[in-house]
Specification:
- Two copies of one chain form a homodimer.
- Chain A is α/β, with parallel strands linked by helices.
- Helices cover 53% and strands 17% of the residues of chain A.
- In chain A, strands 1-2-3-4-5 form a five-stranded mixed β-sheet, sandwiched between helices.
- In chain A, helix 1 packs parallel to helix 2.
């Protein structure tokens, strides 16, 4: 159990973080995620942190890193399931999770991703339309 | 991180097992799952075990128990992501996972559940049609 499993559901990759993150585990998660995004052309990454009672600056930075990597690979990251106490701690730590979108649970996160994806799809269609003119 | 998170996606509950299971964790997972099935009227339970390198008789029994409990609550359980070595060990241990359906990954598991659900839905519709006659 050295790696955190990444579940693929259509265009979305789902990760649930349940274990204490340490350096090597965070690195391998970033590697696995970026590899899967490029291999499958995934458009969204859902990270469930409902099992985490504490999010320290290390995990906060990891989440921001993952969101940044996903963004340059054209995927949107949504962090879901944050406990209220974690939100308080994050702000007290001065971590605002830049570039990370959040939703209360997986279902709402999927809706958020679908909206983001369809908005992108519309943009692409518009561009195609322009080309045809 | 005392509990394994259960993610709800529509009529399906998703659990990824990443940590070493012990008695208390297995019990709390069973309690949480049955509670969520009844609360949300979930029709399917997906258990991802891709992170497990070893499935011993304890985990095998736990999976069979969960499937049994879900069944009496009218939900279908699908275990996904089993590693080839785990399949070998299971059979060598004499554990055939009775009552547990399996699929190679989450996507295939969802398809399996959707088929099972639509088959059930058809049955219910048929019964309704009989009533109307």
């Amino acid at each position: 159990m050295e790696r955190i499993p990444i579940l693929r559901m259509g265009q979305v990759l789902l990760v649930t973080i349940q274990v204490d993150m340490h350096d090597r585990l965070a690195l391998s998660l970033q590697e696995d995620l970026t590899e899967k995004i490029t291999r499958h052309g995934s458009k969204g990454v859902l990270i469930d942190i409902s099992a985490l009672d504490i999010v320290d600056s290390f995990i906060g930075r990891m989440l921001a890193n993952i969101a940044g990597m996903a963004r340059v690979l054209d995927a949107t990251t949504v962090v879901v399931g944050m406990q209220p106490a974690v939100a308080i701690t994050l702000v007290e730590l001065g971590l605002s999770l830049p570039g990370v979108r959040t939703a209360l649970d997986v279902e709402r996160g999927v809706v958020l991703l679908q909206r983001a994806l369809s908005a992108n799809a519309l943009l692409v269609e518009d561009e195609d339309a322009d080309d045809e003119e």
